[in-house]
Amino acid sequence: MNLDNSAVLADEHAMEAACFGAGLPPDAERELRLAGATYQHDQIAETHLFNALALAPWHIAVHIGLYRFYFYKGRLHDALRVALRCLDEAAQRIGVSKDWHVVRATDAEFNSYDAILPRFYLFTLKAYGYLQMRVGNLDEGRAVTEKLLELDPQDKLGGKVLINVLDRVGTDEYDD
Hints:
The protein is mainly α.
């Protein structure tokens, strides 16, 4: 993924539009649509997603599509890899460390809904933390979610919900 290769993503408004497919080359859009149409056939759908990725490796909508495919198919380790790539790319785009451990709230406009790239970073950080929890890496998931709350102290993205779930692990009557 190399978002720097496209003038389409030159500013944050273009990035927001790109999340919804703006600027996606027609051939890549066709591949994404075919992936959706063949969703029930894993290998065929994944091939279309990889084709879209080959046609538009810089476009965020392609990566979101690949992430969602893996997530909804229960391929959480694959989704985790995509989330980590997106997190690295978002960090590069907003000029913060690729090591999320050292990112600080003052490093970017994390508290602004209008700052699309920092917001995308936070959403991706949340997805990464959630997936860590889902694959059983509870300590890593907690650490990531605590970082999310440090960067989003008003909890606009709902990180506290994830912490609350972690705090209840093993205590609810529904846990086995």
